[in-house]
Write a structure and sequence with these properties.
mainly beta; 4 domains; five-stranded mixed beta sheet; disordered N terminus
Length: about 475
């Protein structure tokens, strides 16, 4: 139930002795036959105020405690309840259950239990009509969510809008749903701890209850209305469960950490009614099997069995085991080998040669190395006459490098050629020197005349002899 602010005139209460029937507050949830007490003197709740001088002595026919409170439930709070536990079949006469409002630390509901008794299992249930086994029905959305308190008193009456008190107090629980501690309620009811119904983040599905019926430990767990809490529903833990088995990681071909595995213990390590839980590096407990952290850090793991009905009831813890992830940092240099120097002759008629060679490829202890040529010409290229240096570099996945080099030398081994013109009858550059002699008869006759011009005309009937000599420049 959401917080309600009550406005009251305390002076009117204090000076006029105003008292309200606790069992009638909030409607008809208390049976009519239990609404009047005190005989001819009138209603006991109108006659007596808790702690008032002359009040009837408290009678405690049975032992009783507040065993469980579920104030925050799904929807509009239709499954609220307060469970009392104590002596089986014990009478609840003279007991009053009082609800205190943390907004003003005053009581806002009181339920007289005269005429009621605990059942054969020692339980009595105050709650909404939708709660199975309820003994005293209250309207939905009655129990506030906190910070508030529930108390039980051994007294014949209690006044609504009264302050907290420890007089005739039998038991009290101060609770909340993620609220700050209410010191007024804690001090006024003599309590030191305020319990959070939302401790596990499950306020609407869990309740504040004692780990065992009327036990001293109060926890937040699944509701168990009209049923035993804690140990009665938990198995007997004879020892710690087996721990996980670990396969540590190793370096895969790429020098990456891999292969680490955490395996749950075989079979059913926990008895029925409990669940195996794991703890890693002293953290919180969880039912989820841890996943191996391949590259670290280490994981120290323990196991235990936790009771399903009461998560405060656990087996002893197993001996711790620890993972040891491998470190795959690669500091080894890669390797690369180049061919030897390559001498070749030029291609006939060309000042170059096509040269092929086996391209170097680097290797490494880890996969993923790459090789590139940083200088020179590739295999199958045309190399010019002279020396060409080729350099190759390999880089591995961690950035380590290595290089190699070789030279390709092309030598011009071809002789030069020259072509001269062919032989000619008449050289291109020449002088022709000719002379002729004219005789009167025959060659050896009387020389009549000498001619140096071969084109000269001579008289007919004369004998002419000529001769020419070539002279080359």
């Amino acid at each position: 139930m959401k917080k309600i602010t009550y406005f009251l005139l305390l002076l009117a209460v204090c000076f006029c002795g105003l008292a309200v029937q606790a069992k009638s507050v909030g409607g008809p949830e208390t049976p009519p036959e239990h609404q009047q007490h005190g005989g001819a003197g009138g209603d006991a709740f109108s006659r007596w105020v808790l702690g008032e001088p002359g009040a009837p002595p408290a009678q405690a026919p049975t032992t009783v405690c507040i065993n469980e409170i579920d104030s925050d439930t799904p929807g509009i709070d239709e499954a609220e309840f307060i469970e009392l536990s104590g002596t089986p079949n014990g009478a609840l006469d003279h007991f009053v259950v009082v609800l205190f409002n943390g907004a003003n630390d005053l009581s806002y509901r009181a339920y007289d239990l005269d005429g009621f008794s605990l059942d054969a299992n020692g339980f009595f249930l105050i709650g909404n009509s939708g709660v199975a086994g309820v003994d005293l029905v209250i309207p939905n959305n009655t129990i506030q969510n906190g910070a508030d308190a529930v108390a039980i008193y051994d007294t014949s009456s209690f006044v609504i809008l009264s302050f907290t008190t420890t007089v005739n107090l039998v038991d009290a629980i101060v609770y909340d749903t993620d609220n700050a501690d209410d010191n007024g309620l804690l001090n006024g009811l003599g309590q030191s701890v305020q319990y959070n119904e939302n401790e596990n983040g499950l306020a609407e599905t869990e309740s504040v209850s004692r780990s065992t019926d009327c036990g001293s430990t109060i926890v937040t767990q699944n509701p168990t209305p009209d049923a035993s809490n804690g140990m009665s529903n938990c198995p007997n833990f004879s020892g710690a469960p087996d721990n996980v088995s670990i396969t540590d990681s190793s370096c895969d071909p790429s020098c990456v950490e891999a292969g680490g595995l955490i395996t749950a213990p075989p079979g059913s390590p926990c008895p029925t009614g409990s669940t195996l839980q794991y703890q890693v590096n002293s953290g919180s407990w969880s039912s989820t099997l841890p996943i191996y952290d391949q590259d670290g850090p280490t994981q120290s793991i323990k196991t235990r069995c936790s009771c399903d009905a009461d998560n405060t009831m656990n087996s002893p813890e197993s001996v711790e085991v620890t993972t040891m992830p491998v470190n795959c940092t690669d500091t080894t240099l890669p390797m690369i080998t180049c061919p030897g120097n390559i001498p070749v002759a030029n291609t006939p008629g060309l000042c170059s040669a096509v040269v092929s060679y086996t391209t170097p490829v680097g290797t490494d202890n880890c996969s993923g190395a790459t090789t590139i040529q940083t200088l020179g010409l590739p295999s199958g290229a045309t190399y010019p006459v002279g020396a060409t240096t080729n350099i190759f570099k390999v880089t591995d996945g961690s950035g380590n490098t290595a290089t190699c080099a070789f030279a390709v030398s092309v030598t011009d081994t071809e002789l030069p050629t020259i072509t001269c013109p062919g032989t000619s009858r008449w050289p291109i550059l020449r002088t022709l020197q000719c002379s002729c002699e004219l005789h009167n008869s025959g060659r050896h006759g009387q020389l009549l005349r000498r001619y140096d011009d071969p084109n000269a005309w001579f008289a007919i009937g004369r004998y002419l002899s000529c001769g020419c000599n070539d002279q080359y420049i």
